[in-house]
Request: fold
Amino acid sequence: QELDSLQEKIQEVHEKKQQYVSLKTEFESLREGQESLKNNLDSIDEKLKESDKKLSDSQAVKKPEKTLEVIEQEIYSIETKERDLIKLSAALCNETESLSKILEKGVCGTCKQEVANRESFKSQIDSKKDEAKKAESETLDIHKKVENLKKESQTVRDYESHSKELKLMQDRKKELAEQ
Reply:
């Protein structure tokens, strides 16, 4: 009977030992899972910090005053005016050149009429030259405006792209916070 009692105790110790090994394995597995969760949380915290920084940087960007459509309409309108001024300038230069040749020869090559008042004719040429210079100057100013509008257009495109990226970051932050 004592032998049976000893065998039962040995059996109990053996079962306890197996339970111990099983619990130890389970404990190690849980510890590894805990470590993995901690690493994931640290990674999520880091991503949240990055997102917060990007969000605060992004929110500092000002919304453009004009829409892309408005800017493109302005560019079209101004470029049309620029083309018209270039044509006008070229026509005035041609006319000035023609009038200068007539003044130089003293006779119109087409109608063979003599230049009656050389001073008045020269004054007309000078007036045409001034108009041409004014048109060229306006053309340069308009060209600068077009370049500035194109830069503004790019700024609006960048803003729109930035806004989309900001929205994605906000969604991602929300998603990370929920994890």
Observations:
- The chain has a mean pLDDT of 86.
- Residues 18 and 161 are 62 Å apart (CA to CA).
- The radius of gyration is 43 Å.
- Residues 118-178 form the longest helix (61 residues).
